[in-house]
Design a protein that fits this description.
The radius of gyration is 15 Å and the shape is globular. 23% of the residues lie in helices and 30% in strands. It is α+β, with helices and mostly antiparallel strands. It has two domains: 1-62, 2,3-Dihydroxybiphenyl 1,2-Dioxygenase, domain 1 (Roll), CATH 3.10.180; 70-134, 2,3-Dihydroxybiphenyl 1,2-Dioxygenase, domain 1. It has four helices and nine strands. A hairpin with a 3-residue loop joins strand 6 and strand 7 (109-111).
Length: 134
């Protein structure tokens, strides 16, 4: 199996979370989806597992942080500033919160942070390919 990242998130409403991630461009992988959890695919190497509380508890008994806390920020690279702006707008229109932090425009990199309906922080960003190559 190729190396991949599986991000596991506790969520409060599976259908609402699936709809949110689908609106942002994730696709559902039905083989890993049931009434308690869903696999949403960003790319060939990035999968987001959405877990209801019962499903989450199969893996850990640690407390689920409140939606106002910040346990991690997950960054997704996009192909343009326009795509970053569009993802932020889609988040706000589909149950998330846009611009939880100020926009960052460093010239060679641009980002905006958003949250999903459960407060998980995502930061879509664009970076100038010339800056990446040095």
């Amino acid at each position: 199996m190729a190396k991949a990242v599986f991000i596991n998130l506790p969520i409060s409403n599976l259908k609402a979370s699936m709809a949110f991630y689908a609106a942002l461009g994730f696709t559902n992988k039905p083989q890993f989806t049931d009434d308690n959890a869903a696999c949403m695919v960003w790319s060939d190497a990035i999968y987001v597992m959405l877990h209801s509380t019962g499903s989450w508890r199969r893996f850990t008994q640690r407390p689920i942080p409140p939606s106002t806390s910040s346990e991690v920020m997950l960054a997704l690279s996009l192909d343009s500033i326009k795509e970053v702006d569009a993802m932020n707008e889609l988040a706000a229109a589909n149950g998330g919160t846009a611009d939880i932090n100020p926009k960052q425009d460093l010239g060679f990199m641009y980002s905006r942070a958003l949250t999903d309906p459960d407060g998980h922080i995502w930061e879509p960003f664009w970076m100038d390919p010339a800056a990446v190559s040095g």
